[in-house]
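Final report, results section. Input specification for complex C-07:
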Amino acid sequence: MMTSIFSLMILGGILIAALMGRMEAVSAAALSDAGRAVQLVISLTGNFCLWSGLMQIAQASGLTDRLAAAARPLTRRLFRGLSANGEAMRAITMNLAANLIGLGSAAMPLGIRAMRAMEREERANGIATDNMALFVVMNTASLQLIPTTNALLRAQAGAAQPLDILPAVWLASAVSIVAGVAAAKLLSRVIL
Amino acid sequence: MSGAGNWAIPCVIFVIVFYGYLHRVHVFEVFLQGAREGLQTSVQILPALVALIAAVGILKASGALDLLTYALAPVMRLLGLPPEVLPLALLRPVSGSGAMVIFTELLTRFGPDSAIGRIASVLEGSTETTFYTIAVYYGATQIQKTRHTGPAAVAADLVGFVMSGIAVRLLFL
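Structure output:
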């Protein structure tokens, strides 16, 4: 999947740039954006360390166990076959909680932790498991209850009530997440 | 609203450290163990990020987005979405910062309380940077075959796009 998207973006982009006479811009963008990616990772590293460290504390103190227990009715239906007290399930719960309250910076390191834990627990061996795919799909849909950056930009642009779109956002998010979970569950039997 | 945002992170950090301290966890040493893992994560996702961000840069600079917007305008009308939000819908799954720029442009050009401004807001708020997430999450593992992840995520995105138009029409117009 990523191979075809990557090829399509690069090959399509360069071909179209050749036709539209934009090769100069493309060659500048390719180099500067590769550098920008490194800067982005460096700026993310502090976040990763901070939230991985905090997650380790929360795990050692038993806080994640309590949160995982509270979320179990939902998570055990979604993620079948994962050990209820395993590291994977705990990281999944923490990631979903961080997503909900809008801690995007915490959600990613926790999500990566969950992916690695699932890979180990389910002995993935290079092929994504159903639980891994479902988890990534849930993270590609927006779980955030209050899109703060979005509201801030609307306020700056002079919106009368920046948050008046919330019900519409919730409706669109909810339907899209249900669609994603359904698609993941259905397609997991088709694409083995 | 920014008030709640400012409180969320400090409160979460406070609760985690306080609860750990109460339960006699050696919070500093344990934090360092976890933080070390964060460092490894960064190194591991770097290649995937360079690949995707460079590819998005090439695509944006090539003018392909303008071409696609023009070609797909009829499809958008069919889905009940104004063609003006198409660049946002196309860029949103690959680049959060790129989508943010287009989102801001749409808000200033059409106004945040116009139909286009509202649909753009809902679209931006109800979807995520899909391919970035897929690349980063799998990039941190040894997974080669992502199986149905991409198709299912794209299905969710498409439903999200169409639903932003429907939701705004349902609740505002």
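DSSP finds eight helices and no strands in chain B. Helices of chain B lie at 2-22, 27-62, 64-78, 86-91, 96-110, 115-126, 130-139, 149-171. This concludes the modelling results for the funded period.
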